[in-house]
Design goal:
The chain has five helices and seven strands, in the order ββαααβββββαα. By secondary structure, it is of the alpha+beta class. It has a three-stranded antiparallel β-sheet. Strands 1-2 form a two-stranded antiparallel sheet. The chain has a two-stranded antiparallel sheet with strand order 4-5. This is XPP2 aminopeptidase.
């Protein structure tokens, strides 16, 4: 099949480029769909800025507080704004519903114009990206649960439930707002609190050390 590796089409990985890893699994208590982009060497200024702006869009939509009965299509542009600011964009959807041990792309939840209003209990992906043909691709995909916000009137927000650090090597902190940095630090604290003890329980020492390094404030 075209997806099988072959000597003609395969090449060695190097530390000089970006890698996009779209991962997921079916578990009895849920379905995961998580994408991370990494660079193990020295990213170019454009790669770093593009990655940071994709992350900014991911954060801006994830921390958004919005009225009940809001459809995903109404708030979708929050994931694109940081890219739009410098004339960049991406050509795919910003997110899709995720079933509980069912479909990974599950109708009718999501951020397209024909998706239903967001209500508490729904799971959706939040996945802005940026691509340059023949050069590199970036996508940062998390799973978020729609929850009630801590507001006087019952508004809604998202709780990100995928607990995987972002690549520090690709983040230009000077572009982030204080609110975005606060969000990132709170997310990293959550990852440490929930994933750290499990890694220790399984005696995965190297993985635990990696997690601590990757979630430093």
């Amino acid at each position: 099949s075209p997806r099988s590796p072959s000597n003609g089409s395969s090449r060695k990985l190097s530390v000089d480029e970006m890698y996009l890893s779209d991962t997921g699994g079916q578990y009895l208590d849920g379905t995961t769909d998580i994408t991370r982009t990494v660079h193990w060497g020295v990213p170019t200024p454009l790669q770093k800025e593009a990655y940071t702006r994709v992350l900014m869009g991911n954060i801006d939509l994830s921390r958004l507080v919005f009225p009940p009965n809001t459809a995903g299509g109404v708030v979708e542009s929050f994931a694109r704004r940081a890219l739009w600011d410098v004339g960049l964009n991406y050509g795919h959807g910003t997110g899709h519903g995720i079933g509980n041990f069912l479909s990974v792309h599950e109708w009718p939840v999501g951020f397209q114009s024909k998706n239903v209003p967001l209500t508490p209990g729904m799971f959706t992906s939040i996945e802005p990206g940026y691509y340059r043909d023949g050069e590199f691709g970036i996508r940062i995909e998390d799973i978020a649960l729609v929850v009630e916000a801590q507001t006087e009137k019952p508004f809604l927000t998202f709780e990100v439930v995928s607990l995987v650090p972002y690549d520090r090597n690709l983040i230009d902190l000077s572009l982030l707002s204080p609110e975005q940095i606060r969000y990132l630090n709170a997310y990293y604290e959550t990852i440490r609190a929930r994933v750290g003890p499990e890694l220790q329980r399984q005696q995965l020492d190297e993985e635990y050390r990696w997690l601590q390094r990757s979630t430093e404030p």
